[in-house]
Specification:
This protein is of the alpha+beta class. The chain contains twelve helices and 44 strands. It is globular.
Length: 752
């Protein structure tokens, strides 16, 4: 029988050792796994977190181990490359920081043993990811186990396989279940016993055979039906000889059918099942990627509370425990490898190995319906090497798994006729109109245009969102990082996306704020704050409740902007979210009125005098908050960019004329404004006439420029200046503002 021993306890650790130690060092830190060495410096900004080697050492005796013929070390996650040494000998190297891999220790074991694992998250040009908007935490950040079993055993070497592949096929009321054992040649007298159990552990099908691939039948099959009924079976395979179990593996699975239709969207078990949900990064404040089971459980609880039916598990393979939770809770999953942002010609082999691991290790999960080939990889253009890499991955996915589809997350600037959109089975786009340029109302029409242009390609939105911290305003505007603008943005996007049935899936970016050490914005460095929930999971932003109102059956009512107490206006707008049909709002016990709203968003105008206690009532559900009349705006609510030369409220504006606070689209729609901007960008980008202009290594294309039209001049120069390492003084910006203030604001175009 297989015996799995958890090996997390009492490791010695140091960063940057000079050599592999011959004995357990006394001066190294002692810790338990999981562990990440970037849990602090990977979340504080400035992109200066330690990227290098970390050394983990553990001493043990063979007598401490269970009796077995074979011993394998199993590493569930070592980011991003690692070497395993046993008693000074290097046994294995592995590239890829998010998957399970194993090392045969058997031949190197002695009575006294020293195990050393060298983990390396250094920058290189061959292991993905190397360029992305998240922190590449180094460490042994998932479980390390020791698998002890017999000499004859289910495969422990092949891409971290669980040992069996389970493929159900639904035929009427029955399911034909093909079970393939990952195992070498059986010896004389050896057989494999296959058993399927129902949810209550009753045996419902079994056979014993010398065949490594068998078919079992489930009568009156109980379907895995998403959030409605995520029913799971279990299959066990036992390697038998003379009535003795030599090795055993088991895996849960679900029986379901699905289809992705370019007009009807996602169809589960023959019925429409709209995929409306979120993306998830796995890290946490002060923990990095070194999550415990209770962290995963809290995440899945929050995602289920918001009412999501789908999760995009970005941008890498997640913990097996979380995939298990998705199976149990009925979430439909997009799983992907970290082939992201910048194509590396030397990284092709790594994309192939990571895809092999992703599919081999996760094949049995019924929650997974698509394999993601890449994310925003064409941001620098689609050359032939990139296209060939995608064709290889796409063919590999279909070779390894004939039951699921492939997809990509295309960057917003990717043209609709880009050839790489033709490679996967379905397509999604990452669009941020209304945050990174453009306006919120551009989102729905863009997808309508794609759908009309490519009526046979299922299209979805793999990322959309905007950042919010504890900043507040009664006049939200793009780029202000307020909770109010984020709420407005998601209200608009919900109404546009959820009304378009053809969109096969929509995934908010992101469910949780996450670590991105290169970011220095929003007033709190080192994070991307697009989450519906804060990094520590302690605060649900108002936008969380906007989705809950649309997606959840759990009845509730929520008053928005609870942290925005001090308000200067005489009459203030109060927004309430609820999935109840009618809401009544009371101010100091007096009804402000009743409202009905099919879109679940209820707006009230409330007199703002003195101290006011607000109470929203929807059926038997209530929520309360407070507002207070003040004479001057509370500056604690306003973001002041740290280190900024100018903040937007410091800029002198002339009514009817342009300024640094004007949108770029308005500036370049005027002849003088366009000339000023072209001269400015020319000096920033440099280069000779006719040469390609680049921003952070990416070509400065018309598509990229069109996204920037929605930025204010100040915000664009702040962001682009950082990307191109261009420095603007206060005098430079004031001089530019002076020039713009001489140009009349363009008149709004009338609809024809």
């Amino acid at each position: 029988m297989r015996n799995v021993l958890n090996f997390n306890a009492k490791w010695s650790f140091i960063k940057g050792a000079e050599a592999i130690p011959a004995s357990l060092p006394a001066d190294w830190d002692v810790l338990d796994l999981p562990h990440s060495w970037n849990a602090v410096d990977g979340q504080d900004g400035n992109n200066d977190y330690y990227r290098g080697k970390g050394y983990y050492a553990k001493a043990f005796t063979k007598a401490e181990l269970p009796d077995a013929e074979v011993y394998y070390l199993e590493l569930r996650g070592a980011n991003s490359s690692a070497d395993v040494y046993l008693n000074g000998e290097c046994l294995k190297h592995h590239d890829g920081g998010y998957s399970t891999w194993r090392v045969d220790l058997t031949g190197g074991l002695k009575d006294e043993n020293l195990l050393v694992i060298v983990v390396d998250n250094s920058a290189n040009d061959r292991v993905y990811p190397q360029m992305a908007d998240f922190t590449f935490y180094g460490g042994l950040y998932r479980n390390v186990n020791l698998i002890c079993t017999s000499e004859s055993h289910f495969d422990l070497d092949y891409y971290g396989t669980p040992g069996i592949h389970i493929t159900p096929a639904i035929e009427g009321e029955e399911a034909k279940v093909k079970v393939e054992a990952r195992i070498g040649e059986l010896k004389n007298g050896q057989t494999i016993k296959y058993t399927i159990y129902d949810k209550d552990e009753n045996v419902i099908a079994e056979t014993e055979s010398t065949e490594k691939c068998v078919e079992l039948e489930i009568k009156n099959v109980h379907l895995w039906n998403g959030r409605k009924d995520p029913y799971l079976y279990c299959c066990e395979a036992e390697l038998m000889q003379g009535g003795e179990v030599l090795d055993n593996v088991c895996s849960r699975f679900g029986c379901r059918t699905f289809k992705i239709d370019p007009n009807e969207g996602f169809i589960l078990n023959g019925e429409s099942y709209p995929l409306r949900g979120v993306s998830r990064h796995q890290d946490r404040w002060g923990v990095g990627n070194a999550l415990l089971p209770e962290h995963h459980e809290e995440d899945i609880d929050l995602i289920c509370e918001v009412g999501a039916t789908t999760i995009r598990l970005a941008h890498y393979q997640h913990d097996q425990y979380f995939y298990d939770l998705c199976d149990e809770r009925g979430l439909v999953i997009w799983a992907e490898i970290p082939y992201i942002s910048k194509h590396m010609p030397n990284g092709r082999e790594n994309t192939i190995s990571q895809m092999n691991e992703l599919i081999e290790q996760n094949y049995n999960h019924p929650s997974i319906v698509v394999w993601g080939l890449s994310n925003e990889i064409s941001i620098g253009g689609s050359d032939e090497d990139l296209l060939e890499n995608h064709r290889i991955l796409n063919d590999l996915c279909h070779q390894l798994d004939k039951t699921r589809l492939t997809t990509i997350a295309a960057v917003s600037m990717c043209k609709m006729d880009d050839p790489y959109l033709q490679i996967p089975d379905v397509v999604s786009y990452n669009h941020y109109f209304g945050w990174y340029g453009g306006e919120t109302d551009m989102n729905g029409p863009w997808f309508d245009k794609f759908h009309a242009t490519h009526p046979n390609i299922p299209i979805g939105c793999s990322e959309y969102g905007c950042e919010a911290l504890n900043w507040h305003t009664s006049n939200p505007m793009q780029g202000d990082y307020t909770e109010e603008y984020q709420a407005y943005y998601h209200e608009e996007l919900i109404k546009q996306f959820f009304s378009r049935k053809y969109m096969w899936a929509t995934h908010v970016w992101n469910m949780f704020d996450f670590g991105a050490d290169a970011r220095n914005e929003g007033g709190e460095n080192g994070q991307n704050h697009k989450g519906l929930v804060t990094f520590d999971r302690k605060y649900k932003k108002d936008s969380f409740y906007a989705y809950k109102a649309w997606l959840s059956d759990e009845k509730f009512v929520h008053i928005c902007s609870k942290r925005y107490v001090d308000r200067v206006e005489d009459v203030t707008k109060v927004t309430v979210y609820s999935n109840m049909p009618e809401v009544e709002l009371f101010a100091n016990g007096v009804s402000v009125g009743k409202k009905c709203a099919e879109d679940h968003f209820f707006y009230f105008d409330v007199p703002n005098v003195g101290e006011t206690q607000l109470k929203a009532v929807a059926g038997e559900y209530t929520d309360e908050s407070n507002i207070r009349k003040v004479d001057t705006f509370n500056e604690e609510y306003r973001l002041k960019e740290q280190g900024a030369i100018l903040n937007w409220f410091d800029i002198e504006e002339r009514e009817g004329y342009l300024s640094l606070n004007s949108k770029m689209g308005d500036v370049i729609s005027t002849v003088r404004g366009k000339l000023i901007f072209m001269k400015l960008m020319g000096s920033m980008l440099g280069g000779k006439k006719g040469e390609k202009k680049e921003v952070a290594g990416f070509e400065f294309t018309p598509e990229m420029m069109s996204m920037m039209n929605g930025f204010t001049v100040l915000r664009l120069l702040t962001l682009a200046g950082g990307m191109m390492d261009a420095k603007f003084t206060k005098e430079d910006l004031l001089d530019l503002n002076k020039k713009l203030s001489k140009i009349k604001q363009p008149k709004e175009k009338k609809d024809k």
